[in-house]
Design goal:
single chain; about 240 residues; mainly alpha; about 0% strand
Length: about 240
C-alpha cells in the first residue's frame, strides 16, 4: 500500500500549481492562500505516510484522501507559524553588514536542528515551538544515526540533480538539510531534473520519507531518550 501513496505527491504538485494560477489575481492575499494550500497538502502526505510507516493496511479511497488534507492541518499550521515568527524576528539581522554570513548560519542551524520536524508532526505529541525544541533535542541525541543515512540520501539526490558542489560548503549543508525535510527541498530537487526523471525521483523521495519515519521511530523507542525524559521532567511536561 505504501508505494501508491507516492503518487499523491503528483496530486499535490497539481493542486499547488492550480492554486498558484487561481490566486495570482488576489495580489497580497495570494501568498496567504498558497500558505493554506501548502499546509493542507503537507497535512495530507504526513497523514498518509504515517499510516504507511505504522504498517497499517488501508485502502486509499477518494473519501480517505480528501479527509487527509485536514487530518493534520492544524498541526502543520502551528509549525509553519512558528517558522514564520522565527523568520520575522530574525529579519532585522538580514539587513546588516554581515547579512550574507548570518543568513548562512541561520539557514544551516534551521536545516540541522529542525531536520526531524516532519517525523515529529506525525509521531510526536508536541506542536509549534515545543515541536521545534523536540526536533533539536532529537538530532542532538542521535546525530550520527540520524544524519549519516540522511547525508547519503541528500548527496545522491543533489548529485543526480547536478546540485552537488563542495565549492560552497555552507550552501551545500543547507541544501542537504532541507532536501528531504521540507516540501521546498523536494520541489527544488524536481525542478533541476528532466521531466522524464520525475517519476523515479518521486519514488525515491517517498522511499526516503518512509525510511526516515521508520528510523525515527526506532531511535525514539531505542532507549536513547534519557536526556529528553529528564528535560521534560524538569519542565513539568
Amino acid at each position: 500500500m505504501s508505494w501508491p501513496v507516492a503518487l499523491s505527491l503528483v496530486v499535490y504538485a497539481v493542486v499547488l500549481t492550480i492554486a498558484a494560477i487561481v490566486s495570482a489575481p488576489l495580489g497580497i492575499l495570494a501568498g496567504f492562500v498558497m500558505y493554506l494550500v501548502a499546509a493542507a497538502c503537507w497535512s495530507s502526505y504526513l497523514e498518509l505516510i504515517s499510516q504507511a510507516v505504522a504498517g497499517a493496511r488501508f485502502r486509499l479511497s477518494w473519501d480517505e484522501f480528501k479527509r487527509s488534507f485536514l487530518a493534520r492541518f492544524g498541526d502543520v499550521i502551528s509549525v509553519m507559524f512558528a517558522f514564520w515568527l522565527i523568520s520575522l524576528l530574525t529579519l532585522p539581522l538580514m539587513r546588516g553588514e554581515h547579512a550574507v554570513q548570518i543568513n548562512a548560519i541561520l539557514g544551516f542551524a534551521i536545516a540541522f536542528f529542525f531536520n526531524a520536524v516532519p517525523e515529529l508532526l506525525y509521531q510526536g505529541k508536541s506542536r509549534s515551538f515545543a515541536l521545534l525544541l523536540d526536533s533539536a533535542n532529537f538530532v542532538m541525541e542521535h546525530p550520527i544515526a540520524w544524519f549519516a543515512p540522511n547525508v547519503l540520501f541528500a548527496a545522491l539526490g543533489l548529485w543526480a540533480s547536478g546540485g552537488l558542489s563542495l565549492q560552497h560548503p555552507v550552501a551545500f549543508l543547507i541544501a542537504f538539510g532541507t532536501l528531504f525535510s521540507s516540501p521546498e527541498g523536494v520541489a527544488a530537487l524536481l525542478s533541476r531534473l528532466p521531466i522524464w526523471g520525475w517519476p523515479l525521483a518521486l519514488l525515491v523521495v517517498h522511499f526516503v520519507m518512509l525510511f526516515r519515519g521508520v528510523l525515527f521511530g526506532e531511535l525514539e523507542s531505542g532507549g536513547g531518550n534519557a536526556r529528553r525524559r529528564a528535560f521534560r521532567a524538569s519542565m513539568g511536561r
